[in-house]
Design a protein that fits this description.
The complex is a heterodimer. By secondary structure, chain A is α/β, with parallel strands linked by helices. Chain A contains 8 helices and 11 strands. In chain A, a hairpin with a 2-residue loop joins strand 9 (206-211) and strand 10. By secondary structure, chain B is α+β, with helices and mostly antiparallel strands. Chain B is elongated, with a radius of gyration of 39 Å. Classes of the chains: A alpha/beta, B alpha+beta.
């Protein structure tokens, strides 16, 4: 599904933000991406979402080499990704319904289908009764759920979340994380960048840790009773041998 | 023998029919499957077409609605566009009317034959009768001394001066219209010479030169209007561009989010292109209203003028084809103005 091959990203004024990062995330798996702030978590997600381009190395997503992708192919690649942000990135002058409908509208779905699928997505995040509200009238947790509904409404095979619980209290954070786990159990590949170590440890998924732009380890934070499956998950997330 | 042949033929026929119906049923089921596939294809095609049309129709009116929600800004922009368009359009209408006036005057290139002041109306009438039979003359009209006096009093403003004079100093005038074949000025000159040779003639006047000058002036004006039109079209383009640029800046956040969820540049551009179209369209309709209103304002003066020339001058408005052309051209300019800005700006608005 997603493969990084010796990827580096250099900014002219900040030097290498990512250097020589390699890993593979297989289809239908879920993983956390962690590290101190400024370690390059966000940059990595931006490279996958084609918000930034890598300076060196290749990123392969759905069998496509992202560094060779033309600019006009970016929209169709992004339609296969559900993006979730720390600051939600909702349009505050539009209702919850319109916000969630946006990915369907831009891909030209007929109105009848849009309504059906938006309500489906809102139902999944438990906001069906708030479709006519505006984002600023909702709590932080609710706004993030709107963001999640928008990310899943066109049923993308992969979800990328950048600090999705960064602005939420622990209870809400856990609820959001459970939601991601549920999507993953339906076969969606999920990659979550987070520095909330307690939350990550409480969940049973592989972890990629970045330190100053280098991938330092891939480990399991917690042992789980479902050991055989966990091992398979650990294997699904491969790191190359260190030289 | 015959019976057997008949039976055999019947049997063959029946077998043939049987195989044919078998083939038919096979084919028809195949066709049914194909038809179903085609139907399915059509259904998805119809659905995506429906989505596409939904989007276009929605965007077309949503962009109009967005303009409606900022009435002051929209009115200002539309007015500026309308004025920029109305200026060359009204010049054009003026030119059309002047041209028409020129044609009317040229058509009336008559020769005024002023008789010697001592000659009476009766002598004038006799001369007019003679001239009527001249081969180069189309028609003649006699202005008697009294008639000339009346006209002079009405239009010159020197009526009281005449009262002081006590006698009518105005001569009898015969207005001679040459044959159409003499319309060219140099041919009319021959007739003028002939009239001048008449013993009754005091003075003969054929004034075509000023008409030539009018034509030359109109030609010059036409060039001037073309240049003004080009400049003002450029102004319309820039006004639309600038308005759309501000609108893009205002909606930057929305554009970025749309890009994040996979919107193409085409999709993002659409409302702005429609917005440019609306500016051009509404601006040109307003320009048409301006021009028509201004034309109506000069209507009384034109009527007065047509009374002076004793002729029906019908006032020319901006015609149907001209109006259609104006609206189409302005709408296109609007779309072009929006497109130029989008080309320059949209590629720079990316998520961070």
């Amino acid at each position: 599904m997603l493969q990084f091959n010796r990827v580096s990203k250099r900014y002219p004024d900040a030097g290498d933000v990512l250097s020589d990062v390699s890993f593979t995330l297989e289809r239908g798996k879920m993983a956390f991406l962690t590290g101190h702030s400024g370690a390059g978590k966000s940059t990595m997600l931006k490279l996958i979402a084609l918000i930034e381009r890598s300076s060196r190395g290749q990123i392969i997503l759905n069998g496509k080499n992202l560094s060779r992708l033309q600019n006009r192919e970016i929209p169709s690649m992004r339609r296969n990704l559900g993006l979730i942000f720390q600051d939600y990135r909702l349009l505050n002058d539009r209702t919850v319904f319109d916000n969630v409908a946006l990915p369907l509208i831009v891909t030209g779905h007929a109105h009848s289908e849009v309504a059906r699928r938006v309500r489906g997505a809102l139902d999944k995040v438990g906001l069906l009764n708030k479709e006519k509200r505006y984002p600023l009238g909702l709590s932080g947790g609710e706004q993030q759920r709107v963001g999640i509904a928008r990310a899943i409404v066109n049923k993308p095979p992969m979800i990328l979340a950048d600090e999705p619980t960064g602005n939420l209290d622990p209870d809400l954070s856990q609820e959001i994380m459970r939601m991601f786990a549920e999507f993953n159990s339906h076969g969606v590949t999920v990659l979550i960048a987070s520095h909330d170590l307690a939350l990550i440890e409480a969940m049973d998924y592989p972890v990629l840790r970045l330190d100053h732009g280098r991938l330092v380890e891939s480990r399991r934070e917690a042992e789980s009773p479902r050991l055989p499956e966990s091992r398979r998950e650990a294997e699904s997330l491969r790191l190359p041998e260190s030289p | 023998m015959n019976d057997q042949r008949t039976i055999r033929r019947m049997q063959q026929q029946r077998r043939h029919e049987a195989t044919r119906s078998l083939k038919d049923s096979g084919l028809s089921s195949l066709y049914a499957r194909e038809r179903k596939a085609v139907n399915r294809y059509w259904a998805t095609f119809r659905q995506s077409l429906q989505g596409y049309l939904d989007n276009h129709g929605h965007t077309l009116f949503a962009s109009l609605g967005r303009m409606w929600r900022t009435p002051v800004a929209t009115t200002l922009t539309v007015t500026v566009i309308a004025i920029a368009l109305a200026l060359p359009a009204s010049f054009y209408v003026m030119l059309k009317n002047l041209h028409q006036l020129g044609v009317v005057l040229e058509d009336s290139n008559q020769i005024s034959l002023f008789l010697k002041p001592t000659l009476s109306d009766e002598a004038g009438m006799a001369l007019a009768d003679r001239l009527k039979d001249h081969p180069g003359v189309e028609s003649v009209a006699l202005i008697t001394k009294e008639g000339a006096l009346r006209e002079f009093r009405t239009y010159s403003g020197f009526g009281e001066a005449l009262d002081v004079l006590g006698v009518n100093p105005l001569p009898v005038v015969i207005q001679v219209r040459p044959q159409a074949s003499l319309a060219e000025s140099h041919e009319a000159q021959g007739l003028v010479k002939e009239l001048q040779a008449l013993p009754e003639a005091e003075y003969v006047q054929l004034d075509l030169q000023w008409l030539d000058r009018l034509q030359a002036l109109l030609g010059l004006a036409r060039h001037g209007i073309t240049m003004i039109s080009v400049l003002l079209s450029l102004a319309v383009l820039l006004v639309v561009s600038n308005t759309i640029r501000l609108e893009l800046e205002n909606r930057r956040e929305e554009i970025v989010v749309a890009k994040l969820v996979g919107a193409t540049h085409g999709y993002i551009s659409r409302p702005f292109l429609y917005c440019g179209f609306w500016y051009g369209f509404i601006g040109s309709v307003a320009a048409w209203l301006f021009v028509t209103f201004m034309t109506l304002l000069v209507y009384p003066s034109v009527q007065h003028l047509s009374e002076l020339y004793a002729r029906e001058l019908d006032l020319k408005f901006l015609g149907f084809i001209d109006t259609l052309g104006l609206i189409l051209f302005a709408s296109l300019l609007g779309v072009l103005g929006a497109w130029l800005v989008l080309m320059a700006q949209l590629y720079r608005m990316n998520p961070e």
